[in-house]
Amino acid sequence: MSAVVQFAKPHMYTNPLILNCREYHVCEYMQAYGVEHHWLFSDNWGFHYRALDDFSVLADAATTPFWDNLKRLYQTDKLDYRPDELLDVLKPALSRSICLFTFADTYYLPWHDKFETEHGPFHFIITQWDEAGRHVFVRRGLFLEFDGWLPYDQIRTAFESWNSQCFELTKPTLAVDAHVLKSQLQRCLARIVGNPDGGLSGLYGLRQFRDDLADTQLDVLALIDVWWERLREVIDARSRFLEFLHYLHAESKLVSHVEAECVEAFQAAVELWNELRSGAQRQKIVGTAAPAKLLAKLEQVIAAEEQCALQLASFLHKI
User: Fold this and answer.
1) Nearest to 185 by CA among 305, 47, 41, 11
2) CA 132 to centroid of chain Cα atoms
3) Please, which residues bridge with residue 121 across strands?
4) Beta 48-51 vs 54-56: how paired, if at all?
5) Which partner from 47, 49, 52, 198 sits 20 to 30 angstroms from 10, CA to CA?
6) How far apart are CA 59 and CA 47, in angstroms?
7) Which CATH number is 78-169's, of 3.30.70.141, 3.100.10.10, 3.40.525.10, 3.90.70.10?
8) CB atoms within 10 A of CB 173
9) Burial class (CB in 10 A: 0-12, 13-18, 19+), 198
């Protein structure tokens, strides 16, 4: 049986659901090594606009800031596998590292509410292997949580039913100073402000979004269907940076504090994005589009992001 490593929920100042399950498990992984995870969020932001039905946090094919920071700041490599036999990867991975990040099919996972009823993707980590009993220790740390031993054959079936994908991370190391902090904040500020060239991003993209919505002849209710998941991703990126600001204020020794006005500006932006998303969904539910209300809220979002840019620029001058 492999050595026992203690995993625990990563400390979060805001809602952990701003992370997807893979990201949450990466944060648990960092914590198990005694490495601060908040720097993964330290430049998370983005808005790239192409059309009313085509916008995203990132430019096409761009690596998300979270995973970019994992490599760039933590010197951690992500090793992807698609083995014919899970055990061929699992045993070597656990000899080198503390877990294997694994995807599987909900249909075969006994603690899942879709067990034996519905197929779908699910993520967890495997932290131990019991050679004698041929069991694995499975941990799921966020939403439908689970910690326990399960038969290897059951997990292998679930694994093979969902594309046989898993990955390993190399051991993280983190060395940050005021220079790194300033660089990360500058990256975030650049994403807020954006660029008018090569595709509209940041505030340039938001203003074009507003202008196109004001002039559109398209079915707004149909657009809202497209927006729902995209807006969630936009909100989550901003929520992660807000989480980083809370960490800086409470724990980091690189700054004495983060001024309340700065935190409040980013909190207000997140809240307004949430109001835009929920307001759009209410219009979809009742079946009546109200573009003027959406435009009014979008104007507030733009003003809030302009304030975020000002506050972050001011903060940078003080570092």
Assistant:
1) 41
2) 38
3) 105
4) antiparallel
5) 47
6) 8
7) 3.90.70.10
8) 11
9) exposed
Indicate the length of the chain as a whole number.
319
Tokens of 88: 């061929």
Per-residue pLDDT of the chain (319 residues; tens, 9 = 90+): 445 678 989 999 999 999 999 999 999 999 999 999 999 999 999 999 999 999 999 987 678 899 999 999 999 999 999 999 999 999 999 999 999 999 999 999 999 999 999 999 999 999 999 999 999 999 998 889 999 999 999 999 999 999 999 999 999 999 999 999 999 999 999 999 999 876 799 999 999 999 999 999 999 999 999 999 999 999 999 999 999 999 999 999 999 889 999 999 999 999 999 999 999 999 999 999 999 999 999 999 999 999 999 999 999 998 8
Write out the two tokens for 73: 């700041």
